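Good morning C.,

I know you're traveling, so I'll keep this short. The sequence:
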Amino acid sequence: MGGRVFRVVTVCTGNVCRSPLAAALIARWAAQAGMGDRVIVTSGGTRPAVGYPMHPEAAAVARAHGASPDHTARALSTAQVRSADLILTAERAHRAVVAHLLPRAAPKVYTIREFAALAQSVSMSPLPEGTARDGGGSGDSVDSALAALDAISRRRGLGPRRTAKDDDIADPVLGNKAAFRVMELQLIDPLRQGFDALFGQDRS
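The tokens, ready to paste straight into the viewer:
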């Protein structure tokens, strides 16, 4: 299918745990929503383990949620940042790296948990006409997602002050299974909340 696509980039440190898992989940959800060819998801690392696959524990989480763990770690590129509609990071530190890499991209960079909180605040009030929360057809789905993203971005700075504890997803790469469980708990629900806010999916 031709036409406009919605580009998402996910970012973490090594690009072997958090960001590739997030990218795999978004791709899975987009495919389930019939938007697999309209939502383009890539990931990158700020200090990547270039060439490595997804960490086995992260891959197990991906499979458990029906997502593909196929992945090769790469560095985040300026081209990815420039072309993205939305950039989701695992930590505030990654958000800062992206903003330094391409300063004009700063308004479209959020931590995953920050974006979910903003999306939740928007869900408490009416969205502009044509946004995606009510579902809608595939023909205008990207325009609707962009409108929803604009509504979410307008909430930035209006809520309670957030801290790194609120925003960061713990890096499990040197931890045990429990560390990966913490990552899973911190990452998946907020990521899904953000996805649903953009693409109007019903989780029931």
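Safe travels,
E.
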